[in-house]
Fold:
Amino acid sequence: MYASREDIEYDFGDDSKAESKTIKPNPNIDGGWAWMIVLSSFLVHILIMGSQMALGILNMEWLEEFNQSRGLTAWVSSLSMGITLIVGPFIGLFISMCGCRKTAIIGGILNALGWILSAYASDVHYLFLTFGVTAGIGSGMVYLPAVVMVGQYFQKRRALAQGLSTTGTGFGAFLMTALLKYLCTEFGWRNAMFIQGAISLNLCVCGALMRPLFRVVSEKHVVRSNSEDNQAKALSHSAETIRSNGVLSEEPEKREEATNEEVLDSVQHIETGGKSRSERSMYGLRLLKTVSQLTVTVRKGFAIWYSSYFGAASLFTNRVFVAFIIWALFAYSSFVIPFIHLPEIVKQYNLSGQNNIFPLTSIIAIVHIFGKVILGIISDLPCISTWNVFLMANFTLVTCILTLPLMQTYVTLAVVCALIGFSSGYFSLMPVVTEDLVGTRHLANAYGIIICANGISALLGPPFAGWIYDMTHKYDFSFYISGLLYMVGIIFLLIQPCIQKKHPREKSTEEAQV
Structure:
C-alpha cells in the first residue's frame, strides 16, 4: 500500500552517471521470494492458530485426566491463546534487535519445548506454565514476524497476500483437529503432545524462510570497484614515472625492502615466541568485538522500540491508531463467543440432529477462509479503499452477532453463521490498515499493540460471557452485550478523521519523497 524508503531500492552510480540512473524496485517485492514468505506465513498460521483452534480435543483429555473444574481447565487454552497475542509489544522489541528471522526461529524452539514439556504434566497448574506461558510466548514470537514479513514484501497486492497467508488458520483448524484426535486415540494425549512438539519444530524452518529484504547494491559495488581500479592505475602510472627519474626511484625501493625485512622478523618472533599468547589475544579481541556489536544492536533496537511507544514520535500520538486499539479490545471476543455458545443454542432449539450433519461452527470456519481471500482481492482494487472495506465488514459482523440469538431454525442460523464467517475475514486486513496508519517502519511495534489488545479480548471475553450466563441464565445476553461493546469500538473508529483521502497507491509516491 504505502511505499516507504525501506521498500524502494536505489542504485547509485558515479557522479557522471548519477542523473541517468533510475529508481528500481526490488524484484522480490510483489513477486519472487515474496511468495515464499506467504507460504511461510501460511504454514505458521496452520501450526500455531490451527493448533489453538483444536485445543478442545486436548481440553477433554485434561478434564478426564486431572478431574478439575471446567473453568480451571479452560484457562490452559485461554492462556495459550491470550499470551500468544498479548506478548506482541515485547516481540516487537525482539524484532527491532534481532530481526524477524532470528525471532521466529527462537520462537519455534520455545513453542516446541512447551508442547514437549506439557507431555509430562502432573496437574493443571503445571500446564499453566509449560503450555500456557512457554508455548504461548513461543507462538507469539513466530506469529508476529510471519505477519510483518508479508507486509514488508508486498505493496500492490498486500491485502491479497495477507488474506492467503491467514487462511492457514482455517485449514489448520481442520487439519490439527483431525490430527490431534487421531494421535490421542492411538497414542494417548501425552504422546500426542510430544509428537505435536516435534511437528512444531517446523516453525524453525518457516522462520528460516523469512529472508530479510536487502537493498540491491551490486551496481554500486561495481562502480566503486571501477573507480578504485582507476585510482590504482593512476598511482601505478605515477610510480613508474618517478622510477624513470633514476635516483628518486631507488629510495622508495630500499625503504620498502627494509620495511619488509622488519615485518618478517617481527612475524617470525611472534610465531616462535608468543604464538599461544597471540591466539588468546585474538580470541579475546573477537569476543570483545562480538559483545560490542551485540550491545550496539540491542541499544539501537531498544531505542527504536522505546521511541515508538514513549518517544516524540510515539504511536499513541496518532488518534486514529488509539481508536483502533480500543476497537481491538472489543472485537476479538465477539468472534470467539459464537464458537463457545452456538452448540448450546442449537441444543436449546432442538436442532442437534441437523447440526451433527453439518455443524454451524464448521460453516463459520469454511466461509471464513473464502472471506479472507475475497476481501483481500476487493481491497486491492484501485477504486476501493481498504479502510471502507474494513468498516463494512465490521458492520456486517456486529449486525450478525446481535441478530443471531433471534434465529430459531437451522437454515436461518446457517445463513447468519455464513455471514459471520465471511465478514470476519477482515482479520486479513488488520495488518494492511495498521501499516496504512503508521507505515512499514513501525508495523512490527504497532501490530504488536493491536494483537495485544486482541489477546486481552480473547483472554477475558469467554469468561465474561460465562459470567453473564451465570447471572441471567440465558445465552442471548452474551451475544447482545458483546455486540454492543463491539459497536462501541466501531463508533470510536468512526468519530476519528478518515485515515486516507485517497487510495494508498496514489499516495505512495508522495510518501517516498518525504
Q: What stands out?
A: The mean pLDDT is 75. The CA atoms of residues 61 and 189 lie 7 Å apart.
